[in-house]
Amino acid sequence: MEGLLEFAKGPLLGISLLVMVLGLGRHVLIQVHSLLAFRGDRMRHVRWKKILNDTLSWVLPGRHLVPGTIFMSVASIAFHIGVILVPLFLADHIVLWEGFLGVSLPRLIPFWADLLTLVTITAGVALYGYRLLTRRTRDMSRLNDYLILGMVILPFVTGYLAAHPHINPFSWQSVMLVHILSAEALFVVTPFSKLAHIVLFPFNRLSEVHWQLRPGAGADVAEALYGEEARV
């Protein structure tokens, strides 16, 4: 078991991170290349300032909350915050980043790390239930949507159990191995799934460029689909 753990924390982690970085980098290069292909009048009328403001508004997406889905929207926001902060700033993870990347990041206080982990797990389970039990989202969901969400939640559950042996019903080595392998599987899957939106999101706001929609067309489409309360 110790040999497997060392292999998972060493070469396998490096390989999985490399796959994710190269895969996401490819997405970015393709998007940049497609933007550079647009020239002349096609780019002259793009409202870059509005696109930038819309993109930045999603950092604190209060104005994008849709009445009737407030609870699940808040759960989604909390889930994304935890998914970003815990892997990057958990003290145990900082050691890995320092070893592989040679960078030192600030560490989360253990209390906040535990709280964020529990919030992320709770929010993820809520989103899972919402997707499964709500007809509109269930009709739009495929098997891989459930699998990916489960894959994101699993490293948080196993990581929390590994960090709290008094509530862990399994051996520490087995839980830690599942934690590492599930995270590495997530790294490998990310560039080939919807999770690639972690780098594609800013480009997704460029619909006026890619699709050459007239100004305001995105809002009209959202209103047609979801009503006047929809926000894009």
Keywords:
232 residues; mainly alpha; Fumarate Reductase Cytochrome B subunit; 73% helix
Structural write-up:
This protein is mostly helical and 232 residues long. The protein has one domain: Fumarate Reductase Cytochrome B subunit, CATH 1.20.950. It has 13 helices and no strands. It has helices at residues 2-9, 11-36, 41-44, 48-57, 70-89, 91-101, 110-133, 135-140, 143-163, 172-189, 197-204, 207-210, 217-226. The radius of gyration is 20 Å and the shape is globular. The relative contact order is 0.14. The model has no long low-confidence stretch (mean pLDDT 80).
Radius of gyration: 20 Å
What's the CATH topology label? Fumarate Reductase Cytochrome B subunit
Helix-residue proportion:
over 70%
Order of helix and strand elements from N to C terminus: HHHHHHHHHHHHH
Structural domain tally: 1
Kindly estimate the percentage of residues that lie in beta strands according to DSSP.
under 5%
Q: In the CATH classification, which architecture applies?
A: Up-down Bundle
Could you tell me the number of beta strands? 0
**What general form does the structure show?**
globular
Distance separating the two termini? 49 Å
Figure out the total of helices. Answer: 13
Task: Please outline the helices and strands.
Blueprint: H1 2-9, H2 11-36, H3 41-44, H4 48-57, H5 70-89, H6 91-101, H7 110-133, H8 135-140, H9 143-163, H10 172-189, H11 197-204, H12 207-210, H13 217-226
